[in-house]
Amino acid sequence: MIVCKQCGHHNEDSDTFCGSCGKFLEWTGERVVVAQPEPEPVAPEPEAEPAKLGLIDRVRQAVGIEETAPQAAAPVEPEPVAASPAVRAVPVTSAAPTLPSPRRDGDRPGSLPSESAIAPAPEPVLAGVGAPVAAAPAAPRVAPAEEPLSRRPISVAPTAARTRTAPRTLEAPTRRHPGDLICGQCGEGNDPVRHFCRRCGNSLDEALAVRLPWYRRFFNRVFGVRTREAGWRPHRVGPPNVLGMVWRIIRLAIVALIVVALLAFLLVPGFHNLVVDRATTAFTTVRKVVHPNYVPVTPIGASASTATAGHGPMLAIDRYSNTYWAALASDHAPVLVIRFSGSQDIGAIVFRSGASGPAPGDASILQPRPRAIHLVFSNGYATDLALNDQDATQSQTKLLEDGKAKQVSFVEIHIVSVFPPAGASASSVAITEVEFKEKD
Questions:
Q1: Which residues contact 83 (CB under 8 A, 6 or more apart)?
Q2: Which of 111, 220, 257, 328 has the fewest CB atoms within 10 Å distance of its CB?
Q3: Tens-place pLDDT, residues 206-239
Q4: How far is CA 246 from CA 182, 220, 332, 367, in A?
Q5: What is the pLDDT of residue 211?
Q6: Exposure of 343 by Cβ count < 10 A (0-12 exposed, 13-18 middle, 19+ buried)?
Q7: Contacts of 420 (CB under 8 A, 6+ apart)
Q8: CA 242, CA 135: separation in Å to the nearest integer?
């Protein structure tokens, strides 16, 4: 656990920024180690026995012979010699002695060279007036003063060049639990109680909570699985919820039935066809109610109570607009009967009233048009319709009551009243075309 020194918030060991104040935990955090139980005391190891001495070592100890390090001999100072005033020393011309390097193999740095390394000084030749004079004693050797020792040049370690480091790349998010707040900067999941991201320190004021996909939410709701926050406890403890258990069993049974039905639909062909037919029928029924489509129904024959020459009843169903059916003038209650090949469900009727002619003003178009008609269907359904006073170029669609004209094999059209013609007419009524339609 890491405790923030700034606000005292407790953070996890893997957090980089404080969840309360957003401070960088490497600077302001203090890692607290959970107290561990003290380990059991370990028994002290037995002391090792002293090493046994050999025969030669015991003899040396008995005699008192011990190895001692040799001591360096003290330097002997030379005696001073008085120089004769009548004698003059003349040095012999010779090459000056060379001193060896103060550092050799085996010599320690800073130590003086050994005596063998220093060449003895040449004896001076004394010149007298006529005879040789005894030589003076050699001058004492004086140790040279300590001089700085020469050393080989060493290579200077190159300093590391400061290179510009690449920006720090964040790893993929490591946590995504239901209910976590998703950081908009790095995508890391954080506890809902945090105010700053545990990974990058970004503010979580506008962070979005993790939401489960729809199928997991559905199954959690069906099976009663709930996501609890840390530290959740029930509000009260009491007897078990019987109604809740019953409702859970019912939900499980419903889910089991759905699964079995789905498997049967996929694996059993008969059940598959039955379901498809029922679904198609139901869909068609709903569509006919909401948005019906009307398709024409073709009749196979027609008859009438009366008809004028050249204008028989079949001309009212021939789908041509330049022919028409006309009843005799003596027929005051004309009837037109139209038959179908089988049982049909009639939903609408289209009328083209009056008679069509080659040109306006022709005597053939001056025919009475139906005003009120009475329809009688083969299934016993009957209804009355009122038409407008329009010529044959305009059609009028009349919708019937839904579901009333079903399984119809013929229709009787009774002319109740007509609009009077502009002049004398040789017929009592004229109809150019009658069309029937069903819902699809």
A1: 136
A2: 257
A3: 666 666 678 777 777 777 666 665 566 666 666 7
A4: 38, 17, 76, 78
A5: 67
A6: exposed
A7: 368
A8: 136
Rounded Cα–Cα distance for residues 78 and 117 (Å): 20
At 327, is the secondary structure helix, strand, or coil? Answer: strand
Tokens read off for 145: 């003063």
Please measure the distance between the N-terminal and C-terminal CA atoms of the chain and give it in whole angstroms: 73
Domains in the chain, CATH or no CATH each: 1-34+173-211 (no CATH), 214-227+243-291 (no CATH), 294-439 (2.60.120.260)
Tell me the whole-structure pTM to 2 decimals. 0.42
All residues at 6 or more sequence positions from 132 whose CB lies less than 8 Å from its CB, including other chains: 126
Structure tokens at 248: 């859970």
CA distances from 388 to 66, 299, 354, 395, 416 (A): 152, 24, 11, 10, 14
- The radius of gyration computed from the CA coordinates of the chain, to the nearest angstrom, equals 64
Residues in the chain: 440
Neighbours of 414 (CB within 10 A): 18
Six token digits for residue 423: 């002049």
Tokens of 411: 């229709």
